[in-house]
């Protein structure tokens, strides 16, 4: 068994909405370059495999046939504007080969998920994935095919009965929640900036799952400005108790790093160090509850050079069971590549210099504090549905 299955080929950078679009594939290219320079991808037990694109049958397990036809048509004619399917918008402009590029991302996530489920790898990672906003019949929020939902559905079709999905992107994981809102086999947990101030405008604590799946959707809507300490307080107050009550067979996680204080599209204030801590916590929960079975994807993240490569290299290193000391300098060859190709000053170390810490919910909560109000709203909404006391 491999320690980690990493879905990667340079072809994954073909998911590219064009110059000026925030979701620039340079972020995944620089992540893989950094991980290679630091020896993460060359270690024992690390299996890097170029994915095959998901075929139409796989894509139709989540997406409608009409939508696949629309994506293929737009892929052949990038001037297409198909608002009914969310294509040709500012967020989701059409590009040549869009269907093929999107299917390749989906294929990478499905392959990583099945490698874990079938026992060929303990962990699976697709940093090019995490396109969690796509709906069954439409593109949304830079996402054409919803690879996390497709990966989870592939697991269910392979016989899985209890999957937990935890989404730490700054934006609500609305597409994944929508796909499984009525499915009692899937628990979705999303920690995100409040929908009052950020796209997609969903993810309130009152969204708790459909009939027969009550408590299957969990949303922590964090106030703008939440930093490492507050984010970790919210995580610890909600995620571990629910996962321990749920007892998933496999943990599936989405790791958008747009929660960083330097991200240009949102308003949280985490550091790379806080994000690294979230990866460590989720890794440890997978080992505690799922015999280590863990599938992780990338997601959002628009500080393309300053944040994303370091954050996701930490993710890959943790998945490889070879965590990187945050004080580690970034490799000279990687810095030279950035300076030469982008005329930018690269980060010098794998840390922002923070030491994440938090106060535990059990220490008491302040009802006048907006963060504690957000945490308490989530606990009140869903804890009783899992036979948990929201007060403790």
Task: Give a written overview of the molecule.
The protein is of the alpha/beta class. The chain has a single domain (4-386), classed as Arginase, Chain A (3-Layer(aba) Sandwich), CATH 3.40.800. 35% of the residues lie in helices and 11% in strands. It has 11 helices and 8 strands. An 8-stranded parallel β-sheet has the order 2-1-3-8-7-4-5-6, sandwiched between helices. Helix 1 (26-37) packs across helix 9 and helix 7 packs parallel to helix 11 (370-382). The N and C termini lie far apart (40 Å).
Portion in helices: 25-40%
Write the CATH fold name.
Answer: Arginase, Chain A
Category from helices, strands and their pairing: alpha/beta
Strand order of the largest sheet: 2-1-3-8-7-4-5-6
**CATH class, please?**
Alpha Beta
Uncertain runs:
none
**In total, how many domains does the architecture comprise?**
1
Largest sheet: 8 strands, parallel
Keywords: Acetoin catabolism
Pfam families: Hist_deacetyl
GO molecular function: histone deacetylase activity
Domain Histone deacetylase: 21-317
SSE blueprint and pairings:
Elements: E1 2-7, H1 26-37, E2 46-49, H2 56-59, H3 65-76, H4 98-117, E3 121-126, H5 147-157, E4 163-167, H6 174-180, E5 186-193, E6 217-222, H7 228-246, E7 250-254, H8 272-289, E8 294-297, H9 308-319, H10 332-342, H11 370-382
Parallel strand pairs: 1-2, 1-3, 3-8, 4-5, 4-7, 5-6, 7-8
Helix pairs in contact: 1-9, 4-5, 7-8, 7-11, 8-9
């Amino acid at each position: 068994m491999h320690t980690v299955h990493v879905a990667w080929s340079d072809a994954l950078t073909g998911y590219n909405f064009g110059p000026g679009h925030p979701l620039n594939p340079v972020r995944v290219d620089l992540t893989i370059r950094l991980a290679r320079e630091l020896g993460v991808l060359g270690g024992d037990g690390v299996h890097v495999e170029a994915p095959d694109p998901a075929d139409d049958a796989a894509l139709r397990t989540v997406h409608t046939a009409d939508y696949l036809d629309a994506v293929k048509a737009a892929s052949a004619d990038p001037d297409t504007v198909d608002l009914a399917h969310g294509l040709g918008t500012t967020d989701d402009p059409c590009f040549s080969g869009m269907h093929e590029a999107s299917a390749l991302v989906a294929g990478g996530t499905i392959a990583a998920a099945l490698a874990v489920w079938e026992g060929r790898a303990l962990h699976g990672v697709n940093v090019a994935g995490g396109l969690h906003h796509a709906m069954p019949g439409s593109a949304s929020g830079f996402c054409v095919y919803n690879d996390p939902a497709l990966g989870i559905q592939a697991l269910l079709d392979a016989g899985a009965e209890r999957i937990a999905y935890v989404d730490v992107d700054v934006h609500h994981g609305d597409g994944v929640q929508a796909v499984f809102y009525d499915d009692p086999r899937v628990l979705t947990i999303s920690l995100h900036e409040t929908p009052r101030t950020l796209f997609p405008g969903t993810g309130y604590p009152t969204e708790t799952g459909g009939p027969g799946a009550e408590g299957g959707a969990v949303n922590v809507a964090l106030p703008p400005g939440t930093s490492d300490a507050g984010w970790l307080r919210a995580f610890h107050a909600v995620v571990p108790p629910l996962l321990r009550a749920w007892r998933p067979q496999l943990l599936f996680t989405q790791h958008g790093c747009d929660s960083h204080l330097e991200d240009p599209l949102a308003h949280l204030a985490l550091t790379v160090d806080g994000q690294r801590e979230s990866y460590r916590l989720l890794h440890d929960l997978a080992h505690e509850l799922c015999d280590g079975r863990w599938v992780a994807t990338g997601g959002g993240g628009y500080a393309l050079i300053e944040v994303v490569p370091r954050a996701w290299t930490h993710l890959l290193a943790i998945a490889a069971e070879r965590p990187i000391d945050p004080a580690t300098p970034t490799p000279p060859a990687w810095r030279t590549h950035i300076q030469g190709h982008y005329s930018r000053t690269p980060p010098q170390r794998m840390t922002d210099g923070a030491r994440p810490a938090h106060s535990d919910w059990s220490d008491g909560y302040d009802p006048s504090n907006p963060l504690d109000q957000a945490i308490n709203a989530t606990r009140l909404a869903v804890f009783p549905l899992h036979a948990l006391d929201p007060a403790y």
